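Journal club prep — side note

Before the paper discussion, L.F. wants everyone to see what a predicted structure for a comparable chain looks like in token form. Sequence:
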Amino acid sequence: MSIFRKKRLRIRIYGETALRKTAAEIAEIDDKIKTLAEVMINTMRSADGVGLAAPQVGESVRMCVLDVPSRRDASALSQGEMSLLPKMPIVLVNPEVLPTTKELVTTEEGCLSVPKIYAPVTRPARIMLTARTLTGELLHVECAGLLSKAVQHEVDHLNGILFPDKLEADEMSKIAGELKKLRKTRGR
């Protein structure tokens, strides 16, 4: 058992500048990156999240961790879901996404960095994910469902974007007061 298994990092909250920076590419997957990934997984799980990006714990590097639950309807799974869901939790290093369809889906999203606030976010229904794993394996898979949404959400974090930035004006106005309170009381 690793000595880092129980260690957790503080999750940055809406209003903190660390969340608005574009994260740097990871040139080498070294022991420091592997340790960060392990601690991020523990942090994500202890907060009951399905994803966590390094900037959310104050590290400006292009890495995120995911622990997306498996879907029951296996007949509708994308290639990415079939290959990645059994490997959860998974670490994505330098992930990139491209939409593979013009079809959009709108679903309610929340975020560990925007606690207790949820709103409908519209995203492409299917994406192509390209990333490396901690072992250096190259992933190039199409993703749909919750996996697609989670990957897009975490890649947004790596680009300094939070889900409220993607809201329509009327939806943003519904949560503006709550965001202001977060920024004032918990953001730094």
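L.F.'s comment for the group: The mean pLDDT is 92. Keep this in mind when we get to the figures.
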